[in-house]
């Protein structure tokens, strides 16, 4: 194995004092293109079109959007509302904007807001490092694991959530093989997770989403490890579409199921998963692959991009505040209440 010793080389969201540079996730892995956002509206657009994506990363980007607005002297209230509406499911977006708003309400100027956004970004990276250690400790040495979507450096301030646990697990010899589901329709697994894993020299194989149950049946994986976009007060977890069926298959086959997310993804104001808004995106994302139409003209499609995994299918929720085994409302309350 040609493992990169640091397993942590990508920073996809970079603040440069007067602009936010983003590694365009629509273009990976074919092209590594960076572009600059100089206004909050450009940040909103980047979030909407998934140029920047992943729950923690969109919260961080939105915080920098507020800084751009504050530096240019435009009224902040409409900017906060526009950024908040960019995507509905990942609560990290709303959390970051609420944190920026509380500083604005306390009279913070543009420089103070810049320090706050930097703190949000730095804290996310530190949480990922800690979760990596906590999550990896749950895994028996020599295990194979399956992950879904992209939860790595691209989706966070760096290192990753579920992918952070995988990075730490590989480093510690606890994980020896990673399977990544391709994650139709946007292919976050195929395009982004495989890009991160191969760059880090981590043994990884892509699987079709529809191969997951077959993989588990043959005893190939010990853990399914995923991230989250919102964790409700009872532990129900919204994540990328397809996560729920992985949790059902995992329970059926005796495979353990781990959710890894910072506390900024926990939403104690939402009682359970039924109350989480699931983003519906355009049918065209499903009707074509790589911009090429694959379905007969005139066909329609239903494209929910997240689903909710009930808490009782989750063996462990790993946050930087600790590990919750078999999560339920009272355990969530004890840690996050
Ligand atoms: O639509 P996306 O690509 O933003 O969805 C991302 C996911 O579902 C991730 O699993 C989640 O945000 C956690 S990222 C650390």
UniProtKB/TrEMBL annotation:
Catalytic activity: 5-deoxy-alpha-D-ribose 1-phosphate = 5-deoxy-D-ribulose 1-phosphate; 5-(methylsulfanyl)-alpha-D-ribose 1-phosphate = 5-(methylsulfanyl)-D-ribulose 1-phosphate
EC number: 5.3.1.23
SUPFAM superfamilies: NagB/RpiA/CoA transferase-like (SSF100950)
Site (Transition state stabilizer): 149
GO molecular function, a single term: S-methyl-5-thioribose-1-phosphate isomerase activity
Pfam families linked: IF-2B (PF01008)
Residue positions of the active site: 229 (proton donor)
Key words of the record: Amino-acid biosynthesis, Isomerase, Methionine biosynthesis
InterPro entries: IF-2B-related, IF-M1Pi, IF_2B-like_C, Initiation_fac_2B_a/b/d, M1Pi_N, NagB/RpiA_transferase-like
Chain positions recorded as substrate binding sites: 53-55, 87, 188, 239-240
Superkingdom: Bacteria
Pathway of action: Amino-acid biosynthesis; L-methionine biosynthesis via salvage pathway; L-methionine from S-methyl-5-thio-alpha-D-ribose 1-phosphate: step 1/6
GO biological process, one term: L-methionine salvage from methylthioadenosine
Stated role: Catalyzes the interconversion of methylthioribose-1-phosphate (MTR-1-P) into methylthioribulose-1-phosphate (MTRu-1-P). Also catalyzes the interconversion of 5-deoxyribose 1-phosphate and 5-deoxyribulose 1-phosphate. Part of a bifunctional DHAP-shunt salvage pathway for SAM by-products.
Recorded family membership: Belongs to the EIF-2B alpha/beta/delta subunits family. MtnA subfamily.
NCBIfam families hit by this protein: eIF-2B_rel, PRK05720.1, salvage_mtnA
Full protein name: Methylthioribose-1-phosphate isomerase
Organism: Luteibacter rhizovicinus
């Amino acid at each position: 194995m040609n493992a990169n010793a640091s397993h942590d080389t990508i920073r996809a969201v970079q603040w440069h004092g007067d602009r936010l540079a983003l590694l365009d996730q629509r273009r990976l892995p074919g092209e590594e293109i960076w572009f600059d956002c100089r206004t909050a509206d450009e940040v909103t657009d980047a979030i909407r079109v998934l140029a920047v994506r992943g729950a923690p990363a969109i919260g961080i980007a939105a915080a920098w959007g507020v800084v751009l607005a504050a530096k240019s002297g435009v009224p902040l209230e409409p900017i906060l509302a526009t950024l908040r509406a960019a995507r509905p499911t990942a609560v990290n977006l709303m959390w970051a904007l609420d944190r920026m708003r509380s500083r604005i309400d306390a009279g913070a100027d543009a420089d103070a807001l810049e320090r706050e956004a930097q703190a949000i970004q730095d804290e996310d990276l530190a949480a990922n490092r800690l979760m990596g250690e906590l999550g990896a400790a749950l895994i028996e040495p020599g295990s194979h694991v399956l992950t879904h979507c992209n939860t790595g450096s691209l989706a966070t301030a760096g290192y990753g959530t579920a992918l952070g646990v995988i990075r730490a697990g590989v480093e510690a010899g606890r994980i020896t093989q990673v399977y990544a589901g391709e994650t139709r329709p946007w292919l976050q697994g195929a395009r982004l997770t495989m890009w991160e894993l191969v760059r880090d020299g981590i043994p990884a194989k892509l699987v079709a989403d529809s191969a997951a149950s077959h993989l588990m049946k043959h005893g190939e994986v010990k853990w399914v490890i995923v991230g989250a976009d919102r964790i409700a007060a009872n532990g129900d977890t919204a994540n990328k579409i397809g996560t729920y069926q992985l949790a059902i298959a995992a329970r059926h086959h005796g495979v353990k199921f781990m959710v890894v997310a910072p506390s900024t993804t926990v939403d104690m104001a939402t009682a359970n998963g039924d109350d989480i808004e699931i983003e519906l995106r355009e049918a065209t994302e499903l009707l074509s692959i790589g911009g090429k139409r694959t379905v007969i003209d005139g066909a329609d499609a239903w494209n929910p991009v997240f689903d909710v995994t009930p808490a009782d299918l989750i063996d462990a929720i790993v946050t930087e505040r600790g590990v919750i085994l078999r999560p339920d409302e009272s355990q969530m309350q004890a840690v996050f209440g």
